[in-house]
Design a protein that fits this description.
Blueprint (H helix, E strand, L loop, with lengths): L3 E6 L1 E6 L12 E8 L2 E8 L9 E15 L6 E7 L16 E6 L3 E2 L4 E6 L1 H8 L8 E5 L6 E6 L9 E8 L4 E10 L4 E2 L3 E2 L5 E8 L5 E8 L6 E2 L5 E3 L4 E4 L7 E8 L6 E10 L1
Antiparallel strand pairs: 1-12, 2-4, 3-4, 3-11, 4-10, 5-9, 5-11, 5-12, 6-7, 6-8, 6-10, 13-22, 14-21, 15-21, 16-20, 16-22, 17-18, 17-19, 17-21
Amino acid sequence: MAASVMNSQVEVAQISSGEPSKIFGDCITMYLGRKNTSTFYRMLFKFSISNIPNHCIISNALLKIYVQHVSRGNTSLYTPFALTQDWSVQAVNWMNQPIFDPTLSGESKAMSSGGFYTFNITDLVLRWYNHQIPNYGFIMKNEELKDMTYNQIVTLNNPVSAPVIEVTYKPLPTRFIEDIEEIDTDDTWRYSGVADVSYVKTLTCHIENIGDTPVMAKFESSPDDIHFTCDGCSSKIIQPHEMVWATPYAFARCGRIAVKNVNPGETSRIKIWYQAQE
């Protein structure tokens, strides 16, 4: 199956040690890096990945930003680090900035001239998608070791140059699951083991009468593995050495097969194949 790409607009905030209590809010451009010993600029980015379906393979995640102006100082590396606390564009400043994890980062790059720059943040997005860490976004900062290593970044100027996240993903390949069970039958309803079908896309049960007398079978569904009801409410008669199939009509958490002999006093045996796709 072809890969899909999610393009996400990004919430962006600037914080500055030179104005530690100032909330910059939405700015057309923001600064990033170290200006001098008293002024450091950092940028925070946050975006949602809720539109990516479950059970997908994320192959790539990129942050794209546009540098409008660079300081003519020393070259420095810029790195995105995963945040461990939530924040708001309208409330964050240098003094209350969220904590970041220095061990969880995206790609580091030098930005020595104007133009577009792309940072690989696949590892961070995978951790959010797999619920290994909460998605609070990330903070971008440079090494903050040398003066005049700061850049001016376009944030809200126009859709062409504003920051964007590109996530490339595709659904996991379908996995085929199979299980087999045998049950002896008599005059009363006998039941197969309960199958948890909440995580599968499709389910088919093939039921073979491997005995010498006819039996009747039906599929029952349950919301809680305790209370069961007839799914479709029609039993199938299975002659000796005949096979039929059954599928659930209703969406439910659990399912089972119920069987008994057609004629009083007789016994038989059935074989059930459970075949599903995740």
